[in-house]
Amino acid sequence: MSSGADRPAAAAECLADFEHAAAAVLPPDVRDFVAGGSGDETTLAANRAAFDRTFLVPRVLRDVSQCTTNATLLGRPAGMPLAVAPVAYHRLVSPDGELATARAAKSAGVPFTVSTLSSVPVEEITAVGGCVWFQLYWLRDGDRTLELARRAEDAGCEAVMLTVDVPWMGRRLRDVRNRFTLPAEVRAANINVGGTAHIRPADASAVAAHTSQAFSPAVTWAAVARLRERTRLPLVLKGILAPEDALRAAESGVDAVVVSNHGGRQLDGAVPSLDALAELAPVLGGRCELLLDSGVRSGTDILKALALGAAGVLVGRPVIWGLAAAGEAGVRRVFELLAAELRTSLGLAGCAGVTEARKLRTVR
To answer: What letter does residue 257 receive in the DSSP assignment?
Structure first.
């Protein structure tokens, strides 16, 4: 017999269904923390608008009877060209938190990215199995940052993803107005930099205060060089939008770049990630792998990203909506829907797989 958590998962027919279901069960301040962007949320909205104004030119009379979503990300097979984006504090929305998400990702055959601000220690997440990447923020103590990267490596993570667009947190007005504060039972399990995230401020976000205390605003390319020297794992930089920065990343020995504006949560007014990808991919010319983050909400969105030069995409908020609405079953259903939508879109575009998808033309 299905549990109550299974029913909303089974009923969902698109990712928007999960967003609506999650909104019905989450406290308003937590919902805003997940959904919100910075400033006037211009970039948050523009991420979706960029997908909506991008059209595919399908091919016909091709054999798609064996259409597959299988892909390779950072040299490892994946069930589809998708990884779970690093998102902090999964236990805000479900008691099992990152453990439930990691189990669902393992079942789907896609990488799960552990956030530095995960609410479950990295060692417990890698124990689930599957492919796990570790997202790293550069802390004020650089040596401690490198120790955290080594800890992730020792735990069994298969890549290190350094986020480079957060010298400090963007001003997220929903959180400021809510004076958003973490509940006592939800903590950053991989770092210990004090309890400011749990102290309700008078007119700010406690999480913003916590990250300001923890993260270094002085991180530069020298930090990338130090990290490249210290880890044998594939190194990914997340938060690149300028072609010049992507080229420098490739020259620095980086294995992949995530084209991302942090889901519209950092610089409001930053270029939509999909538009940046369209400009950046031809300039980079395959010198390192390209991943696209911010705004992906369907399998057709994934196809558009592939056609514009991405090897794959990162998905964040929809995973959290699924987790909030129906726990692990909800996240599994999110992946099922994305895989079904991607396979449908691939076939209708005349592509038997992701390799052909990268040859599609787009009209924008």
So the answer is: E
